[in-house]
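Lecture 7, part 2: worked example. A protein chain together with S-adenosylmethionine.
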Amino acid sequence: MFNLILSIIILIFLAGFILFFFIDMMVSFYFGAPFVDTGNNLVDAIVRLGNPKSHDIFYDLGCGSGKIVCAFARKQVLRSTGIEITPSAYHLSKFRNRNLKNAKIIYKNFDNVDFSDGTIIYCYLFPSLVQKLAKRFERQLKANTKVICQDFPIESKKPEQIIKVGRHKLFLYKY
Ligand SMILES: C[S@@+](CC[C@H](N)C(=O)[O-])C[C@H]1O[C@@H](n2cnc3c(N)ncnc32)[C@H](O)[C@@H]1O
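Predicted complex, written out as structure tokens:
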């Protein structure tokens, strides 16, 4: 009897786990940019390119595991915000940044978040999403805001700088 109850509990737990990851995957595929984690060597390069100062307000649009939000928060920026739509990535990001007072993780579609106060914006998203965001950047960002894109550039704007890190590229734009 005990073994039967234990097996049922394990089965329910496993089914819940599989369902959670299925829903999670569907969410990221629906929004068009699955969660792909950025390597640590790239994180350092992104921070160097952003050259954050204490007055800066940083946003990672689709922050995944939150490691870039964490890296900028540790550089003592005024605020480092990650926006994430996928539940598992959001929770991971929230956990990673739990002790950083200047870090904030928002569980939302970035289409519905005002990031116009940002002074450094970063994104690692599919090309179609980058082009869609580029129109918003043009309309809403303040002068001198830096935008850093990983791998997929903004087609309508000339980058100030392009750096190569292994097989990845970082594009820096100034608005
Ligand atoms: C390629 S990952 C990049 C993760 C992180 N920025 C990094 O560089 O390590 C893209 C992330 O964007 C998230 N995402 C895609 N569309 C989104 C949207 N509309 N709003 C919020 N997050 C989104 C995905 O869930 C995924 O975690």
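The two ends are 68 Å apart (CA to CA). The pocket of S-adenosylmethionine is lined by residues 28, 31, 33, 35-38, 60, 62-64, 68, 83-86, 89, 109-111, 124-125 (CB under 6 Å). Keep this in mind for problem set question 3.
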